[in-house]
Design a protein that fits this description.
By secondary structure, the protein is of the alpha/beta class. It contains ten helices and eleven strands.
């Protein structure tokens, strides 16, 4: 029997918690548990003890593409990764992305704690931000690692925004990058405080979802069975 391929996020932050979702559903893996316990992620594929599944350890941001292209039948990832992937086709005029996976078969597993998207900036810039919320003439310059999600959010708030894409250290941008605000994922807020920033608005929570391939769900009864197993294991 062909194994069901499951993509899990590499790294210490989400891997252990993601694996537990499948372990509770009856898909334990001794080798993956050993890798997690030893913090050794050099081996990127681990078979389940039952022989019905194989876990692939990949970058969180790549998981949507793995499921979308049928490289994996299921993948557990966070909202920022799969939504940015979906929106990239709309914003960039690319071939449809995210058309082959379903995100709502199973609920949010809440693996990201209190993480949420926030708009933040310097205290001195708060008044300008509030003016941008009420004006169709003022333009808010925003730095973010998530340009498509940010663009959609600000459009929904009727805020004219010039989105600047960066790839890290967004907290220093209001002080050194000539931007009015950042749009970033915040959990505790300590990084904002340390860099002299405050939260202007909380935009949306970061959910963690299991993506399921539409094609696999249609043609492989074992995938549907796994989804049922996971659903039944949710406390």
């Amino acid at each position: 029997m062909r194994k069901i391929i499951i993509a899990l996020p590499k790294g210490h932050r989400l891997l252990a918690r993601s694996y537990e979702v499948f372990k509770r559903a009856g898909y334990a893996s001794d080798s993956l548990e050993c890798a997690i316990r030893l913090s050794d992620q050099k081996q990127l594929q681990h078979d389940s003890c039952c022989g019905r599944a194989a876990f692939l350890l990949v970058r969180n941001m790549d998981i949507p593409q793995y499921v979308d292209r049928n490289w994996a039948e299921l993948g557990l990832t966070a909202f920022d990764c799969y939504r940015e992937y979906e929106l990239s086709s709309v914003m960039g005029g690319l071939a449809m992305r995210g058309d082959n996976f379903i995100t709502d078969l199973l609920p949010d597993f809440a693996l990201c704690g209190q993480s949420r998207f926030c708009v933040a900036g310097m205290q001195s810039g708060r008044d300008f931000y509030e003016k941008c919320k009420k004006s169709d003439e003022k333009i808010l310059t925003v730095a973010t690692q998530h340009p498509n999600i940010a663009a959609k959010y600000f459009a929904s708030q009727r805020i004219l925004a010039d989105i600047v894409t960066i790839f890290g250290s967004s907290e220093i941008m209001p002080a050194h990058g000539s931007v009015d605000a950042i749009f970033d994922i915040v959990e505790t807020g300590s990084a904002l405080v340390e860099n002299g920033l405050i939260i202007y608005d909380e935009a949306m929570p970061i959910q963690t979802k299991i993506l399921v391939s539409k094609a696999a769900l249609k043609y492989d009864v074992n995938v549907a069975s796994m989804v049922d197993d996971i659903s039944s294991s949710i406390i």
